[in-house]
UniProtKB/TrEMBL annotation:
Pfam families, alphabetized: DUF2251
Domain of life: Bacteria
Name of the featured protein: DUF2251 domain-containing protein
Species of origin: Eikenella longinqua
InterPro entries: UCP007050_HI0931 (IPR014449)
């Protein structure tokens, strides 16, 4: 059965390279996610509400974003069962955390997997993998 992704919070307009921290947590799940732009890079984090950061996925280096001067729309999406969380920028999924599989995927597969939480060595998010995760 295909999984649908729902807004975890209202979309927000931002400009890459301007400081931003965007969090999404739910009372019924120990997991949450955080997007952070520290004015130099954008990262998406998987977080356990008691244990802290579980994984980090590189989204962009600000200097490499060609249209960084144009405001963008960012959303955090969740599956209904809260097992998947995705980072959407301008209608494009840049990263996904699969909490059940203990896996994190992004378009540039960086950084390499590390830490005891991760069970999946593949980090590369492709459209085919996204379809598989969503059951399409």
């Amino acid at each position: 059965m295909p999984k649908t992704l729902y807004l975890g919070r209202e979309p927000q307009t931002f400009t890459p390279g301007q400081e931003l921290v965007l969090e999404s947590f739910f009372q019924q799940s120990p997991y949450g996610v955080v997007f952070e732009d520290d004015c130099g890079t954008g990262y998406f984090y998987a977080v356990h509400q008691e244990e802290g950061i579980l994984d980090a996925l590189h989204i962009y280096d600000v200097e490499d974003v060609a249209d960084r001067h144009i405001p963008s729309e960012i959303s955090i999406l969740w599956s209904e069962d809260l097992g998947l969380a995705a980072l959407d920028i301008n209608g494009y999924i840049h990263a996904v955390f699969d909490f059940a599989a203990h896996a994190g995927y992004c378009r540039n597969a960086f950084p390499e997997p590390y830490g005891s939480w991760l069970r999946e060595p593949n980090r590369l998010l492709t459209d085919e993998l996204l379809d598989r995760l969503l059951g399409v």
